[in-house]
Fold O-methyltransferase ZRP4.
Amino acid sequence: MAHAKSNGYHASDATSSLDALSELYGNTFALVKSMALKAAMDLGIADAIHHHGGAATLSQIVTRVALHPSKVPFLRRLMRVLTLSGVFAVQKLAPGDAAAPADEAEAAVYALTPVSRLLIGAGNQGHMMSMLLHPNFITPFFGISDWLQRELPGPCIFKHTHGRSLWEMADDDAAFNTVVNDGMASDSIFTMDILVREHGEVFQWISSLVDVAGGNGTAAQAIARAFPEVKCSVMDLAHVVAEAPGGTGVEFIAGDMFESVPPANAVFLKVY
Ligand SMILES: C[S@@+](CC[C@H](N)C(=O)[O-])C[C@H]1O[C@@H](n2cnc3c(N)ncnc32)[C@H](O)[C@@H]1O
């Protein structure tokens, strides 16, 4: 028979309330996964493992990652979070295994997974994930409840938090502008390769195309490379066009898409 407890739960509820508490902690600490991923990207851990052939012990990783020597033991904890979240895999050599080293920490071999393979080489999504984990993107999440209490119309939550829009901030802050443009470009490299290969028919029969809000032109360049007969141009805000690469065969036009859009056979609009 269940007995009432002071907190209102019954003894028979104990297991489910412990499960619920565990889930509550899981939700509370969910950000640890994001922050561990950010640390891994900042430190270049995927590249370090890739350098060692796709699998590496802690001491091998440390040869390619700039850590203060006093912090090396803590890397194991970070790797534990990253393996639990599927960013890396871990294989442990059993103590009896001939290949197992005496040092227990060295018995773990960390390997790339399909997730961390997206952080290396061509089609690398690291820039996009670094953009999304940039403090300027993270901070607005702290203000969700406050933003919800304000009457519409009002600024988006980014402007509500920072006092200016994402694009205004990128215009004012050259380093943040690079973070945003590189993030968008990494998405374009990945998705345009698939789009051009799998659905290239949408670009046939057109002679000119303008990529509106096309960032630094990565998507337009992919189209121009695959379909040289299509004259490609990119329209974006002046601070983005100012940083656009030259010699790509793609014309850049600075402007505001809400005022006018340059004429072309087709208008291309891609959001990540
Ligand atoms: C989400 S990004 C997408 C970039 C690119 N199309 C892609 O998919 O990688 C949005 C782009 O819109 C641009 N943008 C924002 N407001 C704009 C405006 N009023 N006129 C033209 N471009 C604008 C930004 O500078 C940014 O490059």
User: Anything to note?
Assistant: The pocket of S-adenosylmethionine is lined by residues 167, 184, 187-188, 213-215, 219, 236-237, 240, 256-258, 270-272 (CB under 6 Å). The chain has a mean pLDDT of 93. DSSP finds 14 helices and seven strands in the chain.
